[in-house]
Design a protein that fits this description.
Elements lengths: L19 H17 L6 E5 L4 E3 L6 E2 L4 E6 L1 E2 L7 E3 L3 E8 L8 E8 L2 E11 L9 E8 L4 E8 L4 E3 L4 E8 L2
Antiparallel strand pairs: 1-4, 1-13, 2-12, 3-11, 5-6, 6-11, 7-10, 7-13, 8-9, 8-11
Length: 175
């Protein structure tokens, strides 16, 4: 049977006598082989299961992530702040950092290979009872081996980050 150019899906040849069961079996097996050849994109999902305190107001801190719920193709050590990608591509980063404390302005941004990406900066001003939870939703171009971090800043000394924080990063396209 001939096959398609891109995925190798078998299809009957018009010059061959039809054998429907055999033709369908060959086609089904070629579709299954094509599905199995598609690798899943790198992905990681993390949360914080413990608090982290930003001790000095006006200082940027790397957010440490302690509860990895799923990972493939992105390396991370629980309790660390660094995520390393295994493949080059365009990645979506979605992170929310919850600051605990009244009258706190919480600010977060992405850092790639130690370089802060100020275009990803997000902040939220908290009140007496409404504590800030700024969120980043960014798309970045990364090379294999690039290291990504979320950095956090508070305007108040000894501001804890809560377990309501989360981090998600996924490859959405190649380049």
């Amino acid at each position: 049977m001939p096959t398609t150019t891109n995925w190798g899906i078998a299809y009957p040849n018009s010059t061959t006598a039809p054998n429907v069961p055999a033709d369908l079996q060959a086609q089904a097996q070629s579709v299954e082989a094509a599905f199995n050849s598609v690798a899943l994109a790198p992905l990681i999902i993390c949360t914080k299961d413990t608090s982290q305190t930003l001790n000095t107001a006006g200082t940027w801190y790397d957010v440490k992530w302690t509860a990895e719920t799923h990972s493939q193709g992105i390396t991370h050590t629980n309790g660390d702040s660094t995520f390393v990608v295994s493949e080059a591509g365009i990645y979506q980063i979605n992170s929310r950092v919850a600051f605990n404390g009244a009258n706190v302005t919480g600010t977060i941004k992405v850092s790639i290979n130690g370089i802060d990406k100020n275009e990803t900066l997000e902040d939220e001003i908290g009140g007496v009872t409404a504590w800030p939870k700024p969120r980043i939703n960014a798309w970045v171009k990364l090379a294999a081996g690039d290291a990504v971090k979320i950095r956090a800043y508070s305007n108040v000394n000894s501001t804890p980050l809560s377990a309501e924080s989360n981090f998600f990063m996924s490859k959405v396209a190649g380049y």
